[in-house]
Design the sequence.
């Protein structure tokens, strides 16, 4: 089964995702469309989503160039230093895991999301 990244572009959508993390874990993937490392991390994320991803997680995408204010709010609300690319797992309104750059791999995503 394949899961999908849902792009978020507004602060309201971000607030909803954080609120939903009380019921289901939320993975937020921050992507820079101008960075080759981010492109490689995006490919790893897509590969993970196409190969039996965790079913108890919702997956969201923030393209930093499109929604910089949302990206900045993620850093502020979840108390994580901004990086892109960056994967952040949110549960009960808090960031419980995050990874960036070349550390975002299908393997690292599988390890944390299927634990």
Sequence:
């Amino acid at each position: 089964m394949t899961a999908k990244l849902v792009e978020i572009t507004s602060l309201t959508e971000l607030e909803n995702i954080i609120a939903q993390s009380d019921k289901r874990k939320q993975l937020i993937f921050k992507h820079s469309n101008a960075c080759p490392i981010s492109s490689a991390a995006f490919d790893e994320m897509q590969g993970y989503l196409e190969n039996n991803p965790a079913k108890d997680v919702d997956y969201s995408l923030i393209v930093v160039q499109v929604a910089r204010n949302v990206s900045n709010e993620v850093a502020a609300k979840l108390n994580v230093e901004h990086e892109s690319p960056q994967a952040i797992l949110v549960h009960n309104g808090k960031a419980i895991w995050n990874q960036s750059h070349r550390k975002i791999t299908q393997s690292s995503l599988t390890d944390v999301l299927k634990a």
